[in-house]
């Protein structure tokens, strides 16, 4: 076949997607234009996806599934697209992100590092670079993590923004990430965050000791219908929970945490003092 490009499915997730798409298309005797007509794209666009010159999208993948009758099957291209887009994330977190993007109120608790919605790009990049150096993830996946974080933060910028409440363990602001310059800018970013009309920032000091109710990341969402969803994450697992019986104890503990933590004014003052000590 003239101008037929050989595909290497081992070159990466997008290459594997494209190679499988070509194989499924040719198994039906369809040309690229034939598939394109069935899913509302040009044959040139189909060619671009097959050769990895164009990234697949969710809309494109859903169209392919309908055309190939792969909807809800193990061969689903939408499922593969989800793996490409969210493969760097823990189970349950992609669904959490979708809910976070439309929540009326977001409550966060984090220990050790600044939570994603409050991170500067440089801080996030430093964390990703560290994971690459440790061999935990590839450079490609690290870049994807940072890109997804930017998308996540953008989803919180709306005409009517959510109420965003963050309680940070004191370790979050005292653990240096990315060097003095990166950390100083991150601390200033927290101060700026606290000054917004739709935010609350509190520090849970070390002095809380055993009174601190959480020892891992906890996210709580209040959705527009007033239902509450929790997302709890460990080092290797994430769990999204909609059951009221298990979510309400976390809400109660979060309120107790807020009551025992420093006020926003006290928290900002601690961060200011910490910045003065930053080289």
Short description:
By secondary structure, this protein is of the alpha/beta class. It has 12 helices and 6 strands. The model has no long low-confidence stretch (mean pLDDT 90).
Describe the overall structure.
This protein is of the alpha/beta class. It folds into two domains: 65 residues, 434 Repressor (Amino-terminal Domain), CATH 1.10.260; 184 residues, Endonuclease, Chain A (2-Layer Sandwich). 50% of the residues lie in helices and 13% in strands. Strands 3-2-1-4-5-6 form a six-stranded mixed beta sheet, with helices on both faces. α4 packs antiparallel against α5 and α10 packs antiparallel against α12.
Rounded to the nearest angstrom, the distance between the terminal CA atoms is 64 Å
Strand content: 5-15%
The whole-number mean of residue pLDDT values reads 90
Radius of gyration in whole Å, from Cα? 23 Å
Silhouette:
elongated
Number of domains: 2
Uncertain stretches of 5 or more adjacent residues: none
The CATH architecture category of the largest domain equals 2-Layer Sandwich
Helix content: 40-55%
Count of helical regions: 12
């Amino acid at each position: 076949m003239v101008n037929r490009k050989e595909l290497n499915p081992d070159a990466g997730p997008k290459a594997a997607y494209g190679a499988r798409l070509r194989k499924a298309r040719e198994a039906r005797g369809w040309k690229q234009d034939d598939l394109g007509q069935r899913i509302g794209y040009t044959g040139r666009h189909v060619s671009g996806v097959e050769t990895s010159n164009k990234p697949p999208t969710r809309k494109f993948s859903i169209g392919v599934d309908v055309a190939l009758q792969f909807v809800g099957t193990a061969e689903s291209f939408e499922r593969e697209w989800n793996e490409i887009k969210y493969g760097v994330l823990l189970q349950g977190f992609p669904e959490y992100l979708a809910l976070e993007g439309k929540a009326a109120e977001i409550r966060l608790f984090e220990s050790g590092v600044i939570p994603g919605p409050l991170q500067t790009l440089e801080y996030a990049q430093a964390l990703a670079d560290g994971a690459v150096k440790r061999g935990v993830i590839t450079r490609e996946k690290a870049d994807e993590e940072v890109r997804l974080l930017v998308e996540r933060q953008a989803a919180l910028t709306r005409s009517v923004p959510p109420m965003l409440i963050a309680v940070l363990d004191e370790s979050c602001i005292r653990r240096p990430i990315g060097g003095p310059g990166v950390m100083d800018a991150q601390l200033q970013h927290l101060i700026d965050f606290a000054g917004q009309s739709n935010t609350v920032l509190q520090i849970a000091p070390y002095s809380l000791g055993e009174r601190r109710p959480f020892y891992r990341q906890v996210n709580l969402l209040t959705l527009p219908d007033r239902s509450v969803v929790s997302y709890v994450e460990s080092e290797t697992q994430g769990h999204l929970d909609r059951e009221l019986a298990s979510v309400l104890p976390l809400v109660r503990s979060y309120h107790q945490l807020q009551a025992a933590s420093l006020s926003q004014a006290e928290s900002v003052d601690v961060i200011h003092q910490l910045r003065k000590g930053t080289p």
